Amino acid sequence: MPLHPKLVHLPIALAVLMPLISGGLLIAWWRGALQRRTWIIAIALQVLLVGSGLLALRTGEGDEERVERAVPEAVIEAHEEAAEAFVITAGVVLVIALGAALIRRERAARIVAACAALGTLGVLGAGYRTGQAGGELVYRHGAASAWTSPATQLPGPPAEPAREQDSNDLADRRAP
User: Fold this and answer.
1) Ramachandran assignment for 136, one of left (phi > 0), alpha (psi -120 to 50 degrees), beta (any other)
2) Which site among 7, 28, 58, 167 is 20 to 30 Å from 90 CA-CA?
3) Nearest-5° angle of CA 49, CA 145, CA 154?
């Protein structure tokens, strides 16, 4: 079975959550409810998003040849280009988030953190586009069929072996 479909869910889930998490951290930081150093949570999650996105991208590239047998190459290219844009956008947001942590002046750091939080909305949009293209691969163009040929299907439950009937079986059926 391919590894790519198992890995794509983490970066997409993080893309959905990061606007909420980074926005929440930023608001709490501005209001003084959390210290500046808690911004490291946003950075760590963005690192996880970028890392898992890169891993999903690499495993997708590994599956490409096999899927090309079942799906038009142009559809695969569209998904791959969307995935690359997603990872690049997430990487840019990571750099901005790191900048917020490295800037010494508090006001400037908050402004840069706000830019990073807004950037997570761009990552969400890129993630949506990537997921949409991936869904079309699977559900509209049948990409999963690359792994469901009869030679690769798991066998069904074993059939019960046929047994010969003897006179006792027939007698058991007639008994009330």
Assistant:
1) alpha
2) 28
3) 100
Q: Number of folded domains in the chain?
A: 1
Domain annotation covers residue 138: yes
Question: Which domain, by its residues, includes 50?
Answer: 4-144
pLDDT tens digits, 113-141: 999 999 999 999 999 999 999 999 989 98
Residue 154 lies in a domain: no
Alpha helices in 8-105 (DSSP H): 9-31, 39-68, 73-102
pLDDT tens per residue across span 136-163: 998 998 888 887 865 444 344 444 444 5
Domain annotation covers residue 152: no
Q: Is the dihedral of CA 121, 125, 127, 128 positive or negative?
A: positive
Q: For the full predicted model, state whether its pTM sits above 0.70.
A: yes
**Is 116 inside any structural domain?**
yes
CA triple 112-116-122, angle to 5 deg: 145
